[in-house]
What we know:
This protein is α/β, with parallel strands linked by helices. Helices cover about 40% and strands about 10% of the residues. The chain has an eight-stranded parallel beta sheet. Helix 10 (about 190-200) links the parallel strand 5 (about 175) and strand 6. Helix 4 (about 45-60) packs parallel to helix 13, helix 8 (about 125-140) crosses helix 9 and helix 10 crosses helix 11 (about 215-230). It is globular, with a radius of gyration of 20 Å. The mean pLDDT is about 95. One of its GO terms (molecular function) is zinc ion binding. It holds the Pfam family S-methyl_trans.
Amino acid sequence: MTSKRDILERLNAGEVIVGDGGMVLQLERRGYVKAGHWTPEAAVEHPEAVRQLHREFLRAGADVLQTFSFYCSEDKLELSGNVTNITGAQINEAACDLAREVADEGNALVAGCVSQTPCYLSNRNETEVKSLFKKQMDEFLKKDIDFFIAEFFRYAEEAAWAVQVLKTSGKTVGATLCISPHGDMNGLPPGECAVHLVKAGADIVGVNCHLDPTACIQTVKLMKEGLDKAGLKGHLMIQPLGCQTPECNLTGYISLPEYPFALECRTLTRWDVHKYAREAYDAGIRYIGGCCGFEAYHIRAISEELRAERGFLPPASEKHGLWGAGLELHTKPWVRARAQREYWENLLPASGRPKCPSMATPADE
């Protein structure tokens, strides 16, 4: 494994950083998160489940483990009604402890994460919104985190407020928006969003969640164009949805009829992720991970695709032959014939659902 160094030092040296996968959706499927408000009280209620998922991502090659603190602002917890006897501080601190415990089993960094707030949508009060971010930041700073990520923001303005607060910590800050190539929910184009974030102090900018790798790569390319045009520098980051969303609509998968309980039919294959990792790398993106729907085998696929650039394979590859090589000893000749890259790269997988359409009409259209 690479030595444990600061995230910026590694990105400045041109290293590939493999992010982790989706926590919230995966833990909902495993019975530890309640769909709807998607709050992370499982960090306190079921730490063994959170720890295990962190461990799976680490074994798959993740260089960064994000704290399981999505939607953990006090206003969101109160609104959800999911938590009555656990505070946001308890969740944030437990999330930090779990991420650090597992990260230290390997060589991973820990990112303290904040996300969008109901407060911003209700009143746009900068002081109130920033106070929520500061409270979370202070809780993270009591623990041994390595850097911050402001993630899953639909509005560049709110993300910039988060960045401004987090930068007061003196730590590196990444910021990702859950936007499409159309821009944020205020209509701000991706390039201008990126400029807004870098001027606020973000060291790493990009997108996460809501849309598939194809759409997210397109959006990050537009962000890079905006930064280049403005003469600004910032490392690029991408953590897309683990589902196919060719509709490429403004609000992403939450407007699809399959959201959130029938998304499995859209799940990316590991070979889709190989393609994604290579395209992201070729686009100049060096922090490459996944969000909702990305499981450990997807993260392993990123690690395997970029093994030459990284110089090693993850521990999980000990149980996985590259490009199906493990099938060479199969008893059936037609399965043995699939032990080659050409087969999997060119496969057009069937859905097994003859009455289902290939695309849907999003509710936001």
